[in-house]
Amino acid sequence: MNPSPIKTTCPYCGVGCGIEATLIDAEKHIVNIKGDAQHPANFGRLCSKGATLGDTVSLENRLLQPEINGQTTDWDSALAHVADRFSAIIAEYGPDAVGFYVSGQLLTEDYYVANKLMKGFIGSANIDTNSRLCMSSAVVGYKRAFGADAVPCSYEDLEQAELIVLVGSNAAWCHPIAFQRIRRAKESNPSLKIVVIDPRATSTCDIADLHLSIKPGMDALLFNGLLAYLAETGSLDRDFIDRHCQDFVPALAAAQACADDFDDLATACGLAAHDLAQLFAWFAKLKKVVTVYSQGINQSSSGSDKCNAIINCHLASGKIGKPGSGPFSLTGQPNAMGGREVGGLANMLAAHMDLENPLHVDRVGRFWGSDRVANRQGLKAVELFDAVADGRLKAVWIMATNPVVSMPDADKIKRALQQCPLVVVSDCIANTDTLAFAHVKLPATGWSEKDGTVTNLERRISRQRPLFAPSGQARPDWWIICQVAQRMGFAGFDYQNSAEIFREHAALSGFENDSEHGIRDFDISAFASIEQSQFDALPPIQWPVTATAMHGTARLFSDGRFYTEHGKACFIPINPRAPFHATDAEYPFTLNTGRLRDQWHTMTRTALAAKLNSHKPEPTVEIHPADALRLGFRQRGLAKLTSRWGDMLARIDITVSQQPGSLFVPMHWTGQLSSRGRVGALVNPVVDPLSGQPESKQTPVRIEAW
Ligand code: SF4
């Protein structure tokens, strides 16, 4: 008889699909994977990546033993070494001389203790995450508009909408199961309109009624134009604006200032006027509209403004807090949202509180029993590695991520780590590009061994449950962090399991979170005394989970009350900005980077599945036929791409899905897999000044046959 399946969660994208894993041979790590029919994110469906998870859980390429300077060692020695070196550096140079760079692959419990150690006890906010590269602009957009990093929508809204606008999102490849929900909604309701706004004609366009192949970087201008159009055509929801919003007048004035002539607006966006008019007419006329946006919006030097330009249109038309309506950002990673909840970004404290609010710092300090809680923002990802490069940071601990591949100006990360006095890397993989620079390697448990929670892009907390015992000497990330914290002399890190950490995280989210203290009810305080058995059986549930919302909260703001101090949503005046670096005669093409259907991040897991590798077996550069003809390129030839920051080689893929003047290269290839295929080496490191998110979609490059 087969054992009962173990319910867990896919570790790849932010859709957060439920999985049922049936062990065939636990010793040999053989497991049968299928979708969990009861999980509300996917109802049994899995995409190609989730379905092949069973091929990726072998011990191939696993880091299984701690190492110091290339020599294997025992845990006690490794932990003592890390704790002693961190303590010595902090004693000599202060707490801001060290940093953590963590990951949306960590579980919420791992994130919670890493944040508690750095911000609560070391006393610096130098902890940032690779989620900075994917959704930090969306966080700024939500915080500015709603007073909290609060995603208003649920997947159900996609099924109830009359119009779905996908902006800067190839959901068909990057969030496949969410996309399949949209596809099925369209099939069962053909009157549902789908508009895709994207310079590229991606697979997402297959179901679109209208594809707007916008000029790269013009999204804020387009949504400003929409706001002006809503006002001109009497399509505003005046009652909603007056009762629930503020600062509408300056936002409208800014929008009208840059969109006073419709034909000029369409031309500036690179669009046919009748196509743009069609989108505006649908948005104005249809009552239920969801705008779905992703990295094409966020990865920009003005990404935060682009997010608020979208949100402004939803506020102005009252299309928020209602079934089938709202601005819905698609988070990239499985637990980027969990990291946001516990304050895993350098500019957040914990439980949606702020570093720069003395009341919040005092509250968290009393809760944690620490008088050295950080009270100013730390270094965001690009700044953090700049500080490693220029010697301000003497020690960096990198957890479950591969910045030598994924960061912009990636060769600079190599140089920075090369000369850093202490590089600690904890990972489940043995030979990433980043581990090559580690003085200390700490073996962490992998997906199939982890035990804790993740939160998906619709705020749904789901359990990741272990399928196997930890391999070799691998230990959970939360355990490694807590062991180091204890050896540094800090109290409050003696957890016995992840349920204890989850309980504390839930308690902090509700601590002094009431009308008397004037803060939000955006918490999961209902779990503050959750028992181990309840944690083990925890069903998927949407944040917030409070005494008045014990079964979670599907949709936010349905009562028209927002998380700002005054309870109103804020319009943000937007002055659109072009990409920071313009193309020129030397670098005439705009390089866009992104994901492939069958790969994940830097391929440390997905490359283990032969089926996934067959989709796109090597780095490619997509180029329009007119550009290819002009440059004398042939299909499948080799090209060299060069920017001001680096170069790479890629196989030429001539396709009309690309606009003339633009190139697309996937982000996944590492130096290990393809010595000249790391696109991060080319990507410019300019960031959004508010979110710190890099402009990974727009780097000027040149291309030549190789
Ligand atoms: Fe996993 Fe995302 Fe695919 Fe779902 S859509 S199976 S979460 S990769």
From TrEMBL:
Cofactor(s) the protein needs: [4Fe-4S] cluster; Mo-bis(molybdopterin guanine dinucleotide)
Coiled coil residues, start to end: none
GO BP, sorted A to Z: cellular respiration; nitrate assimilation
Keyword field contains Acyltransferase: no
Record's keyword terms, sorted: 4Fe-4S, Iron, Iron-sulfur, Metal-binding, Molybdenum, Nitrate assimilation, Oxidoreductase
The 4Fe-4S Mo/W bis-MGD-type domain, residue ranges: 3-61
Top-level taxon of origin: Bacteria
GO cellular component: a single term: oxidoreductase complex
One Gene Ontology MF term: metal ion binding
Similarity field: Belongs to the prokaryotic molybdopterin-containing oxidoreductase family. NasA/NapA/NarB subfamily.
Name the UniProt record assigns to this protein: Nitrate reductase
UniProt organism field: Methylomonas methanica (strain DSM 25384 / MC09)
Span covered, complete protein: 1 to 706 of 897
